[in-house]
Amino acid sequence: MYDSVTIDDLELHEGMNGVHLRAVGYELRPKQMRPNVWVYEAGETSTKHRHQEQEELYHVLSGQFEMDFFDDEEMKEESLELEAGDVVVVSPDQLRQLRCLEDGEVFVVGAPNAKDDGVVVD
């Protein structure tokens, strides 16, 4: 059995930090993962966060981004520049924040499908 959807047909919803998303997971209801397409304007950022158990895969569909990685004291350790076609997988315990440099979209898949798994750091 399978389900499918066209991303452009999904309604845009306001997500965290004012960033918009297309709720792929809400539409398709997968049991093992949480997929979404996040739609950013230049200058917008995701929350600085980690997860309790969810590993995340980020696939940049368009635009340019920078992903910052932080140590346990919340000091920036490293930045990774990302553009269309780039894919990165981040472990649950890695503190990270995505920053949009040029308007774009990022397909994010978290697994396992753990509701309210994110730990946001201010």
From TrEMBL:
Signal peptide: none annotated. It holds the Pfam family Cupin_2. This is Cupin domain-containing protein. It comes from the Archaea. Keywords: Metal-binding, Plasmid. The lineage of its organism: Archaea, Methanobacteriati, Methanobacteriota, Stenosarchaea group, Halobacteria. PANTHER family: OXALATE-BINDING PROTEIN, SLL1358 PROTEIN. InterPro entries: Cupin_2 (IPR013096), GPI/OXD (IPR051610), RmlC-like_jellyroll (IPR014710), RmlC_Cupin_sf (IPR011051). Residues 37-106 form the Cupin type-2 domain. The keyword Metal-binding applies. The keyword rRNA-binding does not apply.
